[in-house]
Design goal:
Structural class: alpha/beta
Helix content: 40-55%
Order of helices and strands: HEEEEEEHHEHEHHEHHEHEHHHHH
Strand content: 5-15%
Bound molecules: adenosine-5'-triphosphate
Shape: flat
Number of strands: 11
Amino acid sequence: MENMSPTVLKKIEDLKKEIKILKEENTKTKRNLTWKVRKLEKDKVLIENEKMRLEREAKSLRGEIERFRSPPLVIATVTEVLEDGRVVVKSSTGPNFVIGYSRFLNKKDLEPGVRVALNQQTFSIVNILPSEKDPLVMGMEVEEKPNVSYEQIGGLEEQLVEIKETVELPLKKPELFTNVGIEPPKGVLLYGPPGTGKTLLAKAVAHETNATFIKIVASEFVRKYIGEGARLVRGVFELAKEKAPSIIFIDEIDAIAAKRLKSSTSGDREVQRTLMQLLAEMDGFEARGDVGLVAATNRPDILDPALLRPGRFDRFIEVPVPNEDGRMEILKIHTRNMSLDEEVDLKLIASLTEGASGADLKAMCTEAGMFAIREERSTVTVTDFMDAIDKIIGIEHEEDMRREAGVMFG
Ligand code: ATP
């Protein structure tokens, strides 16, 4: 190198620089290409997923088309099963038929009184329909004497007194009202934020009065059973009378009882028909009878005034988010069967859970228990509760809570 002329040396230097630049460019291009390949691979996965999704949708749409193409079935009720294997049915259109049935059906299920579907052309039985009063079909939850007692409700003493007076007493001692000559309220409306114990209150009354608890969720009613709402409302009242004493609990009543709006889509009209049926049932209903009516909503402000008139839902009970004492009561209830470390101070936990509902507090206790189980401990500690508060009650007040907990626990 030393013997080389400066021009040659310069050339070598230039070449080296050039090689360096090319190398750098090469690395850059390589990086770009790798990035592009990765992106394309990702796109490929996305496209494949999309393809699968579309295939699924196409399949379900094909099924839907098939359903549209299949002719309607005629509803009938079995009146007699003949010895030769044929069945006598009374069709919903009027006439009686002697017909056969699909070999896929179980003969044992074909009893007098069972509802069946008939093929429109051949009139043979193709399907056995669920009973009209099947609670599952009607989207109801039915519980004979639910096992929720008043002791399992925390922080709602006033509400308990009111509900006892308005729902329990007319069911248990209707004569008290007759003697005094007043009508007890027909329906009681519980209103307040979610998870504050409205369902619990209604269940507890059913328990204390040995009544059947029949719950319907109005929003599901409207969504699932288009065109059926009014019939189902009638069914609910019929079932309640059959199973009396009973408590009908209508959750999310705002879904069928929101103020009537000007717009009238077919959906709105359907909702209105359901509400009208509910009002009609309430009007023809004996307040001192053996069916209690309780409804719940988070939105009392949007309810149709027709529903709140005297003789309908005319008693309102607010079920608010619990205050500190209420939270303490609820915590006591939900930790009753938990083995707690002796340092756990429920009063402190109650003070740290401002804004939590009963449902939040219950979830928090369960979560604290889960933390202990994960660490294979059999007692639940203060730390488990603190972690559960973070997880369930959210991080809104996290800073405050940590600070306070820090002060209190040193
Ligand atoms: P939603 O409006 O969402 O239907 P809700 O007000 O009916 O809510 P519930 O279903 O009664 O609330 O409460 C859910 C659960 O939370 C209950 O099963 C119970 O375990 C717990 N809980 C709520 N409030 C209380 C309370 N006051 N005392 C004890 N437990 C409660």
